[in-house]
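Postdoc handover notes: sequence design on the structure in folder B. Input tokens:
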């Protein structure tokens, strides 16, 4: 498997409008995109630092993954995403190595990336995402 870099860190927040003031006014970052991902029941806001992005995640439904996460654990780091070359093969390899997959095959995520999640119960408690930008 060829992981190339940390693509983004997903951070669950109650309100993007509130949280972005910290990222913009205090840290001096620029929000370059806000996007709703309907099938994930989230609204996202992206900031870039070097090659890595911060993805703020606001739930649009209390029963969605981020809504449930905030209800249980509060705001905070929700997942880490690695960029990978060849996401299909990477997911297959992980499956063969008995890592529990949430997505057996890639699906479309924010920014048009192909993504696949690994279950936190088989990644030492860290919800992990693989992603590949096939438009590059
Ligand atoms: N990080 C670490 N552990 C997590 C977690 C997270 N983000 N989310 C849930 N868990 C843990 C819970 O704490 C719980 O642990 P315990 O059994 O020890 O209490 C367990 O996983 C089950 O949690 P749950 O609240 O019952 O939730 P579900 O099993 O219904 O779903 C999960 C958990 C990870 C399978 C689901 O959140 C999922 O499919 N996530 C992937 C998709 C996603 O997160 N999308 C939002 C981001 C989209 C984007 O970036 O665009």
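Designed sequence:
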């Amino acid at each position: 498997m060829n992981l190339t870099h940390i693509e983004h860190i997903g951070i669950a927040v109650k309100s993007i409008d509130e949280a972005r003031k910290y990222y913009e006014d205090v840290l001096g970052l620029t929000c370059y995109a806000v996007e709703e991902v309907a099938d994930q029941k989230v609204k996202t806001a992206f900031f870039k630092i070097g090659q890595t992005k911060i993805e703020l995640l606001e739930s649009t439904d209390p029963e969605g993954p981020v809504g449930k996460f905030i209800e249980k654990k509060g705001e905070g780091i929700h997942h880490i995403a690695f960029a990978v070359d060849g996401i299909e093969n990477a997911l297959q390899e992980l499956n063969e190595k008995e890592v529990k997959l949430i997505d057996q095959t890639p699906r479309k995520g924010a920014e048009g990336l192909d993504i696949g999640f690994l279950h936190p119960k088989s990644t030492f408690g860290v919800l992990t995402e693989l992603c590949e930008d096939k438009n590059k």
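Context for whoever picks this up: The mean pLDDT is 96. Don't rerun without checking with the PI first.
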